[in-house]
């Protein structure tokens, strides 16, 4: 979906319908999330890396519920914000028509807004990471790490 400016305040309205397989995965697996990303058009070719950056004044509603998320990030630093997680606001039923509305203002940039399914992976505990590292890089007996 592409955002383009023509008035002072615009809406992007899309309908999200999950297939039975995706709806089942969303219901069973808590690590599967529905995320909204936004990136400004840089004029480059497709399939290039882009920083996550929402328009300065933006409001997202899913099924008429407003999403309270920090979509700004750090001032003048594209890529310093996170995508909006809308998993708890969508109806996780097959063939249900979820309504996602993004209202934005005060921007002249063209932006792209993909809606993606993401699987969240939790970081391994520190002792697990240290154990894996010690298996990869064994030390001689009595050897210690020094600064």
Characteristic key phrases:
about 150 residues, alpha+beta, Jelly Rolls, 4-stranded antiparallel beta sheet, 3-stranded antiparallel beta sheet, 10 strands, globular
How would you characterize the overall build of this protein?
The chain has 147 residues and is an alpha+beta fold. It has a single domain, classed as PINIT domain (Jelly Rolls). The chain is 14% helix and 30% strand. It contains 2 helices and 10 strands; from the N terminus they run ββαββββββββα. The chain has helices at 20-28, 126-136, and strands at residues 2-3, 9-17, 32-36, 39-40, 57-62, 65-66, 84-85, 97-105, 111-112, 115-119. It has a 4-stranded antiparallel beta sheet with strand order 2-8-5-6, with no helix packed on it. A 3-stranded antiparallel beta sheet has the order 1-9-4, with no helix packed on it. The longest helix is centred in the last third of the chain and has 11 residues, at 126-136. The radius of gyration is 21 Å and the shape is globular. The termini are far apart. The model has no long low-confidence stretch (mean pLDDT 78).
